[in-house]
Amino acid sequence: MAIQTNLSKKDKATIAILLFAAVIFMFIWFLIRPAITSIRNTDEKIVQAELKQNENHNKIILLSSSEALYGKCVDDLNESTAVFYEVMDSSEIDQMLTSYVLKSGLFAEDLVINMPAGSVKESPYAYSSLNEHVNNVSSADTSTATPTNAPGTSTIVEGLNVPYNTAKSRCISTEPSGVQCVNIKLVCTGSQKTCQAFIDDVCTKPAVRVTGFIWGKVDPIEVYNEETDRYEKVDSGKYRLTLTLNLYMTEVADYSTVTPDSAD
Q1: Residues 6 or more apart from 54 whose CB is under 8 A from it?
Q2: How far is 109 from 119, CA to CA, in rounded Å?
Q3: What distance in Å separates the CA atoms of residue 116 and residue 263, rounded to the nearest whole number?
Q4: Structure confidence by residue, pLDDT tens digits, 154-201
Q5: Which residues are bridge partners to 187 per DSSP?
Q6: How far is CA 146 from the centre of its chain?
Q7: What is the 3-class SS of 180-242, one letter each residue?
Q8: CB contact at 8 A, 179 and 203
């Protein structure tokens, strides 16, 4: 039995058009749209892969200069530590200083050596230009932000010397250096001229810092006078010099020698 409807031909044509449009939409939504989305995702992955490839290529180029930078680091390290004494124990320091005093024409009366417990935290002289650098770095914002790249942009690879130079400029403490400071009190006697020459010579040594000194005439000595048959006090002509100083020493590995393990 046929179903009777009151739809006109125009209504039936409209419904047919809507049904056709719905079929087309469903076809696009379930078949064509996933394909387009997949293509877009693939294109985006290709772009990201190309960016990553370029970034790795730039890093490889920079790594070609890493050997030269490593050599510069080793040279800087050796240059900055060449002036210091090698690490010694108290007996070795005693022997070195006693020999130095005797060779200078003085007599060592007393020697007090205070060995360090770790690396020294040293400050520049009050009016040194280094103080201005320390203050500028301390007041500056030294926080390190991680750069975020927007999608579709390339990553800028810094030169290998950038973080190295940045670390050097931000260093405001001597503690990480490994340099040790030995506090020494030295008492010796000799002529005024010899004592003065000794002070002048000590001040020229880059690994020694004179923190104070006191000197004065040695007390008169008793000398036997044959004419008077008596002991008389006479000027000895000697001066007693008391020096307080810091002796700096460190032990630096030979980083210029590349071992097989480090080469791997």
Answers
A1: 154
A2: 30
A3: 35
A4: 445 456 677 777 777 777 667 777 889 999 999 999 999 999 999 999
A5: 110, 242
A6: 20
A7: EEEEEEEEEEECHHHHHHHHHHHHCCCCEEEEEEEEEECCCEEEEECCCCEEEEECCCCEEEE
A8: no
- Summarize pLDDT for 107-141 with one digit per residue, the tens: 999 999 999 988 888 776 666 665 565 556 555 54
Three-point CA angle 214, 215, 219, nearest 5°: 135
DSSP string, 59-119: HHHHHTTHHHHHHHHHHHHHHHHTTSBPP--HHHHHHHHHHHHHHTT-EEEEEEEE--SS-
What the block records as the tokens of 231 is: 């002991």
> How is residue 175 written in tokens?
């503690």
- Distance between CA atoms of 190 and 34, rounded to whole angstroms? 98
Tokens of 226: 């044959």
* The token pair that represents 237 in the structure block: 């002509």
Helices (H) and strands (E) in the chain, counts: 8, 6
3-state helix, strand and coil shares in percent for the chain, rounded to the nearest 5: 45, 20, 35
The tokens describing 201, both together, are 């010579």
Q: Does pTM surpass 0.90?
A: no
Whole-angstrom distance, CA of residue 174 vs CA of residue 84: 14
Burial class (CB in 10 A: 0-12, 13-18, 19+), 256: exposed
**Using an 8 Å Cβ cutoff, are 112 and 184 in contact?**
yes
